[in-house]
Amino acid sequence: METESEPYVRLATLRQLHQVVAELNTARSLADTLQTVADGVVNGLGYELACVNLVRPDGDLVVAAFAGNPSAEALITGRVGSRDAWERRLAMGEPWGALRFISYTEGWVLDDDDVPQWYTEGPEPRFEDEWHPADRLFAPMYATGAAGGELLGVISVDRPRNGRRPGAWGREALQMYAFQAAIAISNARLRANMQRALVRLEREQQALRASEESFRQAFEYAPSGMAIAEMGGDQHGRLLRTNDALCRLLGRPASAMRRYSFSDLVHPEDIGTLLRTSAEGGRAELRLARRDGTYVWVSLRNSVVADAADGPRFLLTHVEDIEERKRRELQLAHRASHDSLTGLPNSAELRARLGARLCRRPHAGRPSAVDSLDAAYEHGFDFGHASLQQDEGFDHHVHTVAPEEGEVDDGTKGLAVLFCDLDGFKSINDRFGHHTGDAVLIEVARRLTSGVRDGDTVARLGGDEFVVLADGLGRADAQDLAVRLRNAIIPPIRVDGRAVRVGASFGIGWAHCGMSADEVLHSADQRMYVEKRSRAKQQRRAG
Q: What's the whole-number average pLDDT of the chain?
């Protein structure tokens, strides 16, 4: 039966419990919470010593807080006990509800394990419920409040101030206190984790802001052009942002650039190059349009700005001005394929252009000019960009044919090769020097170029020899062209106030498939010499 004093004891215990639990919620940090837990056991629940053992991430338990005896506190605070030793203690303890009690009669077997502990002295118990200095009482703390939850730590207590083992209400108070302490520790740990997360987030945001600012400055103030374009969707390729260097290069303001994509600005001949350029790590050299209508050679280098969640989002393009390098390359290429004196295509370029029209397989039939043109359009042949195919099995090729031999023009249109040799040039060189001779060659080259159609080729073969390639001519057309060009060369050429004259002999050859470029040139050369000998005989007869 309940004694008269028990209701008062219960009421006092509940008041003390309420007070110490309230203090648990005032702690500001996890360390303060742990110390408050230990202090509450001593100050509020009436024990002389209290130790809070907290579970570490590796599973072992560390003495995180102590109250009641400074010397004992200095001895064990911060020391670690293994999880196995603690599990053994909790398993062998006598269950007092959720508490575990180990009597001095059994606890001696634990004296040599690694759990940090203290030793108190005192007389042997005289009564059955009197507290022995070697008695041990543990209050486990679980995350869910129940014994089946995750173990957060263990409160170890020693010697109630009244010197007796706690009764039913004392045990229940300690058990309830351990339950509330577990909640307070969990909340404190959560707050600490949140605070660390907030600090980490703030640092990451600061780093992100610093990174964005670094990127912005690197983007805006880069010495070469930079652009950011959309990837995917209806607006794929549209320029979202351009730096000052790119705007200056193209002569366009940033607000206007946002209306374009690179496909809107690229030279029509380079659109294929742009479309073939890989989005990720792609490189291309092409021409972009300036605001004044001119084009500038640039090198584009792409990289993808990816989003971890949504995949590729933007395309970052580096645009480098390579106009000077391209100009030098074109100059070198022009120098390699053109005569340095006259600027005309040289012998190598002449043979390349001639070889571009010829294949090794001779044409079996002799189609008319109309048939040749129809075949050309049917196969998509581009006369301005003739393929250099020389393969024996190249079937999709508009064969080059020649008119029939003889004086009568049969109507066939072919590729005429006019071989021109200047008459009297050597004497000019001998009498007036190479300076005058060079001036004569330059003027002859100009007159020949002025006398042919756009698309025809005038080349200097070497010395005073020139060659004209004229496509789509019949035999009479070629002869008329030779006469016009000879008449254009004959008029006097003034050099340093002196008038000099040269004549010209022309030989007309015809190119057709099955011949090599050298064979075509040799044929025209031979006809030129035949004509020159014939004219020489006529002049001797006339003299």
A: 83
Output the CA–CA distances (angstroms, integers) from residue 150 to 153, 154, 381, in the order listed: 9, 12, 82
Q: Is 242 helix (H, G, I), strand (E, B) or coil?
A: strand
Indicate the burial class of 430 (C-beta count within 10 angstroms; 0-12, 13-18, 19 or more). Answer: exposed
Q: How far apart are CA 229 and CA 261, in angstroms?
A: 8
List the beta strands (DSSP E) in 264-307.
283-289, 295-307
Q: 234: burial class by Cβ within 10 Å (0-12, 13-18, 19+)?
A: exposed
How do residues 261-319 score in pLDDT, each as one tens digit?
998 999 999 988 888 876 666 788 999 999 999 999 999 988 887 765 565 678 888 99
* Residue 237 φ/ψ, nearest 5 degrees: 90, -10
Give the span between the Cα atoms of 232 and 236, in whole angstroms. 5
Task: Give the closest residue to 415 by CA, choosing from 444, 457, 365.
Answer: 457
The answer to whether the predicted template modeling score (pTM) of the entire model surpasses 0.70 is no
State how far the alpha carbon of 520 is from the alpha carbons of 386, 410, 417, 470, 525, in Å.
18, 21, 8, 13, 9
Catalytic: 464? yes
Chain centroid to CA 291: 29
Cα–Cα distance between 531 and 505 in angstroms, integer? 7
Least confident of 5-14, 37-46, 233-242, 289-298: 5-14
Instruction: Please state, in angstroms and rounded to a whole number, the distance separating the CA atoms of residues 493 and 432.
Output: 13
Amino acid 412 reads T
**Which secondary structure element, helix H or strand E, spans residue 202, and what is its range?**
helix 168-220
- DSSP letters for 484-497: HHHHHHSS-EEETT
Cα(303)–Cα(265) distance, integer angstroms: 20
Q: Where are the alpha helices (DSSP H) in 290-368?
A: 323-337, 347-356
- Are residues 285 and 298 in contact, defined by beta-carbon separation less than 8 angstroms? yes
Of 387, 405, 404, residue with least CA distance to 396: 387
How far the first Cα of the chain sits from its last, in Å, is 165
Residue 367 pLDDT greater than 70, yes or no: no
Give the Cα separation of 305 and 226 in Å (integer).
Answer: 13
Catalytic annotation, pick one of 464, 477, 480, 518: 464
pLDDT tens digits for 73-120? Answer: 777 888 999 999 999 999 999 999 999 999 988 888 887 889 988 877
Inter-axis angle of helices 425-432 and 434-450, nearest 10: 140
